Amino acid sequence: MTKRRAYGEQQRSSATRHRHDHGKSRCLNILRKLSAYIDDELSGSICREIRRHLGACPNCETFVVSLRQIVSLCRRSQAPTLSTAERAFMRRKILQTAQTR
Amino acid sequence: MGASSTTRRPPASSSLPSRNAKTFDILYRDHVDLIYRFAHRLCGEPEAAKDLVQETFLNAYRGFDRFRGEAQISTWLYTIASRACLRMRRKRKGAPERELSLEEFIPTSDGEFRLQIPIDGFSPEEALQNKQLRQALNAAISQLPKKYKMVLVLRDMEGLSAKEVGTIMGLHERAVKSRLHRARLFVRRQLSARGLDEAFTDHEHD
Q1: Angle, alpha carbons B101-B105-B108 (nearest 5°)
Q2: Deepest of A14, A42, B40, B46, by most Cβ within 10 A of its Cβ?
Q3: Nearest-neighbour CA in chain A from B63: distance (Å)
């Protein structure tokens, strides 16, 4: 948090001062493309444009980091497994239903 | 629907599973864990997931004749499961069906840019050991309208390509990517200050 604020201050003091406002069309335009950016589906020139924006806009940078985190969490998240008994029980039930219905 | 009287099979599918219990057993043995995992991710709880698995394999058992062998068996089963899920979810009370617009994901306050459960410096596996994080992630996914949830689960959790997801859901690849983006933004927002505040407020009112 502190680190981000410090980075933000530094950005705001620069000549190309960018007051963050996600209502601005530029940030919205970047927001639209972030999944394609993360999934590496964009052309080199669009990627460069996005990286330039992220370098000048700490909040968008934080945003894209958090979106990447979500994708990694989804990819690594585990689901429970069935027990041998549950598998066998369900198999019997399916075959019974198939034969009776 | 007419499946029980269908004995003819297209020549191209002669090597595919025939409708008998033995072949069914192989199909079931090889894919039940995959379909249960998928079903659990869609339904969010074991009993509904088991119902979905049973419905999927029942439909698969009856539909061997319609399997043309153009897709992998897993893709075919995902398709059957997705359709069964859409039917089942209509009967049950789930997240309200609505379109997600990009505008609703634009942060409006400082706490909304980052995730509020700190995971910086941890690998995703380590972060997922945090029960609060796991619960928040699962809750966020369960709140997604189903057509978005299905895309997120197939693409980011099951690891399929956008093209495969399109085949399963009968969507153009572009539509898959658009839904995926909105689904990810939704989950991200739910784990930011805004989402967690709303979850807390909802809980208080319950």
Answers
A1: 135
A2: B40
A3: 11
**Which of A27, A35, A50 minimizes the C-alpha distance to B178?**
A35
Average pLDDT value for residue range A55-63: 92
Cβ contacts (< 8 Å) between A76 and chain B: which residues?
Answer: 124-125, 128
Residue B206 confidence (pLDDT) above 80 = no
Of B91, B124, B141, the position where a domain reaches its end is B91
- Helix (H, G, I), strand (E, B), or coil: what is residue B172? coil
Checking ipTM against 0.95, whether it exceeds it is no
Are the Cβ atoms of A66 and B192 closer than 8 angstroms? Answer: yes
Please name which of B194, B41, B179 lies closest in space to residue B115, comparing C-alpha atoms.
Answer: B194
Q: How far from chain centre, in Å, is Cα B166? A: 13
The domain in which residue B65 lies consists of 14-91
Distance (Å, whole) CA B104 – CA B108: 10
Q: Is a pLDDT exceeding 90 seen at residue B57?
A: yes
Q: Are residues B37 and B114 in the same domain?
A: no
Are B192 and B130 members of one domain?
yes
